[in-house]
Amino acid sequence: MFSLRAHAANFITLLNALFGFLGCIAMIQDRFDLALIALVAAAIADFLDGFVARMLKVESVFGNFMDSMADVISFGLFPSLWWYFTLSESLSVLWASGLASLLFACALLRLVRFSVYESKSIHFEGLPTPAMALFVVLITQTELFDQMAYFTPVWFERAAVVLTLLFSGWMVSKFPAVSLKFKDYTFKKNALRYLVIVSAIVGFILLREELVLVLLPTYAVSSLLIKR
Fold first, then answer.
1. How many CA atoms lie within 13 A of 103 on its CB side?
2. What's the predicted TM-score (pTM) here?
3. Helix (H/G/I), strand (E/B), else coil: 124
4. Domains and CATH numbers, the chain
5. How far is 190 from 208, CA to CA, in rounded Å?
6. Cα separation values, 171 from 60, 133, 139, Å
7. CA within 13 Å, CB half, 185
8. pLDDT tens, 170-182?
């Protein structure tokens, strides 16, 4: 018998995938404003599905696998397409395709590893794909990124390669990254999480689109503080 309670989290996961898919369509139609809204909606759904599954105590292998498959679309394909369309405005199609393909391949490998191998750590091994998607989108909205593309094309090409290698390598590595999924809300157990969240809020208030210039190094440094 069909149980709404048992499949509530899976329905939210499906929304995650659908928002990611619609975001890709929006990019193809050159509606990056709508694509950004779709990404935010997918990220909210990605957070809620796990929260609902834990709250209703309906976590399952099927749900975990479905979550990874949804993330392939929303936080693998979506940011890779976004990266391609952005880079192709300044770089050759070959360069843009190659860098975007590397980003997607590493996102896929990271999600497969995450779904197959269970980690006992409370934090992630490798950069989580939602964080990668956030960084890619934010970086492309900064004035620094636009100015490099317009005034210093050679350095822009080098920066694109370095950023692609950074995100791709971090995703498939076992280098730790802070998980923002809370099991309780005590400061002692969640100090690094609170550090990242507070930095994100303050950075957004002060810097707006330039938020990533604070958030990315803060996230990287806080990840270095994780006890192995």
1. 31
2. 0.86
3. strand
4. 4-224 (1.20.120)
5. 25
6. 24, 11, 17
7. 1
8. 999 988 887 766 6
